[in-house]
Amino acid sequence: MTEFKVIDDLVCIIPPEKHSVEDITAILEAHPEIKFVSLAAVDLAGNDTDERIPICDFHDHLVNYLNGEAVQTDGSSVVLPGIATLNDGKVDLVPDSEVVWYVDYNYEHIDNKTGLPVGTLRIPSFLYHNGRQTSFQRCLCDEEFLALIVYFK
Length: 153
Hints:
Strands 1, 2, 3, 4, 5, 6, 7 and 8 form an eight-stranded mixed β-sheet that branches. Helix content is 23%, strand content 33%. By secondary structure, it is an alpha+beta fold. The chain starts with 12 loop residues before the first strand and ends with a helix. The chain has five helices and eight strands; from the N terminus they run βαββααβββββαα. It is globular.
């Protein structure tokens, strides 16, 4: 069994006020143990989907990722009844900049250069289909989406 211990030097969260390009760049440069970024969202059925991105690609295209212009899924892993079809299933993942982002560390995989566990920055995100927000978060405050859930239940 892997021994778990808290390591003081690890960043665990990135609060909303630190989601600027400059702040994210500084945090990631100061923490080379963070090797991946995962944009994760929840569909209308409560299923989660995520796209895991190598940190070098995230860093190189940071503005695109933050603006929701870089991550798409074919829709095969999300449930959007009455919204997306097989012929029109492309879904964009757009980061939620108003919530805390967190780093998930894998204590079973230690980075050879830093001696620290490999981290994945987990970013809660919204799902967009054809420019319209279609993730579960929107369902909680949109009567049209609530009606769709009732209709397809």
